[in-house]
Records
---
Amino acid sequence: MRAVAILLGYLVACAVFAADWQFQKPLVVTAASRGVFCHLDASGRKSLAVSDDTVAIVWEDNRSGSAQIYAAFKKIDADGFTPPLRISDAGPAYEPAVAALPHGRFVAGWEANGRVWSRLVSPTEKGPVTALSSHPAQQLTLARAATEGKVVAAWAQRRDKWFQIMTAGLTVRNGVVVPRAARLVDDEPPRDHQFYPAIAESRAGVVVAWEDRRQGATRIMTAFAPPAGGFGPPRVLNDFRASRIARFGNGTGAMRVVLATDGQANVTAAWLDKRDFEGGYDVYATVSEDGGKTFAADEIVQDMLGENTPQWHAAVAMSRQGNIVVAWDDSREGSKDVWFSTREESWSDDNTFPAMEDGRSEAHPVLAYDDHGRLHAAWLELRQGASVIRYVQGVQRFTPP
Amino acid sequence: MRRITGILLCLLVSSIGWADPPAGYPFVAYDEGLRLARQQNKKIFLYFGRYGCGYCGKTNVETFSNRDLRNLYIKHYILVYVDAESGRRLTLPEGERITEMELGARLNVFSSPVFLYLEPSGEIILRAPGYKTVKDFEDFDRYVQGGYYRNQSINEFLAGKS
């Protein structure tokens, strides 16, 4: 009953409409002064998470004089975020990720000093920092695990001259993040880079996707492990076109894959894909109904109006109810704007979030659904050399049958 | 001796990955290139490549293997190579940290290869996408080094053969 009352209050408070979405008034998460640069930039693009009624956003900026990681929190129905909380100790620190634990607590992670690190964070606490990698590592990503109270992590770890993909489960004991069962996704001797991982875990198992250069061009690969099982052989996720000229090249490129799950067995993967290279990268996506063991044929996400413009920085979210949204930025209208599309039987026409204004560059979206199906989004605004992280939450308007 | 050097250079170029910068050229990262260009007051030749890119490989093998072109470009430019899908970090002069991929997004580089000619300040003089021959690069060099870009488009320049 309380949830219904909150939702009704929320709908009444909604002031801004876009397509069949209803958004609340956008909020500023943090506004940097001139010369300070915020970044929402991490492998898997998991810089926003929701735990019960608490939203957490993590980012990198140089307000202290070097790149460090910060977090800000808000209650879902609050009209502002907490002041930035610095969560990296040493530095410079880069590319943070965050995943939800129950009861308004989160695991945050980042890269610093050539390793990847994590710690428990909440609006009222910071646990000690835990090293996740014993070897040089980068590009940490995190996701809520299928088992409540746990998080799954993936990162790129150097072995000899190449990076490989590692995963681990993370639990929290007495406020300390404890990595468990760290393992290689593909333990074949490396012969080129595997990096930029994304990870998702549903009841069906854990799936990892990453960029793989072992075929002479960047392919998106996935591997799936059932609960308590090992990873199966990697599979190529993206279709690609062979090089058009004899003797040269190994095909079209793809990069920056992201994953999301509804927690059951449905997983969505999205990435940037250059198979139609005249228009630059497009956003492609595919869905899995078996937890990521297999994926359906991939589909282009953006609509025809974005066809001749390169898309960048794709992010994806899936709700517990099975809704899927993919967001990205492109310059189809001259300035860079954040766009999003939802998938039902096919991908919708593209929408923008509220507060998009001329003269600003809006890019680098990050997304998460909460357990009630509300979408939470944040992005980076650049205006005359100053950067702002802006946030909005919204729901898809009910359409009578 | 000159022929042997040329053959060796060609072998070096053809033995590397398909979208690494051509061997034998002193390519540097973008931020280092900006610093050197300002220090030496030289223009920048910026090569955006991509791992697995066919036309990058073709340009490397068929064009950048030319010894005279190599000498000309080393003399006239600070040479910068960017892997358009790379997460390699760069620090811009105003202190912002970005990646090579992000640089491509900001410069709207959506195909590969793309060759950019820049002022020492980083301002773009000329954007030349796609496979290019030795003659193309020699023409672009005359256009840039001769200052014709101040008064003419590249097409006007090439039509007039200044």
---
Amino acid sequence: MISLVPASSEQEHPVYAILLAIQRYGLSRSFVQLFPALMLVVVVVGTLTGCMLPVGPLRGSEHEDITMKKSSIVLLRLAATHDGKPMELLNKWSSPFA
Amino acid sequence: MTNFVVLVENIDSGDQVSTIRSPTPEAEKEGWVYLLLEPGRYYLRMQPWRNNRISGRFFLSVPVAGTVVYAGSLPIRCASVVTLWIMSNERVSPQCLPTDTVEDESKSAGQIATASFAQYEFATILMREPK
């Protein structure tokens, strides 16, 4: 007999619950069952976005800001010369290991 | 493409840092590179080319986070070119000698920092050879 009451493991792991729901009821029924949860996600994300809070993957500048809270930029120059003339150490030579 | 290897090791934790970046493509052509390091004490060594000699150790200190620290310029002298034959492709490699001294180019470093990292405070803390 199919239980309509979610098991404790399903409550703890929503992903398992979604997969089990699809298995039990089929995709369309599962969508109906999950529609309130999807609406909740939309409302939460919309609220956070409205409050200017970051939602989703970090953009480059945000990632840099977070990194710079823990680290500093250490700037160096590798000043290469070839027979006394300036040389592009980083780009000029082809690597035999490339 | 980078032909050199910069070896950075945290003195206290032994952690190694290998990610080297460049502020801009133009700065990269002049040899400007940077690393992201958490506050701490580090040893830095560099190898201009994989088969070249590795430099001596330089002591590097990062006092606080959120700043741009210019650690100095390392002059590297390269000489005659060695031709290698690998899989029928001609490749060239310079013979370079890593330096044992650190030069101070704070003015140029400040300009690089202003252009690329204007939002962070700039300081010069030159690397030095351990006593």
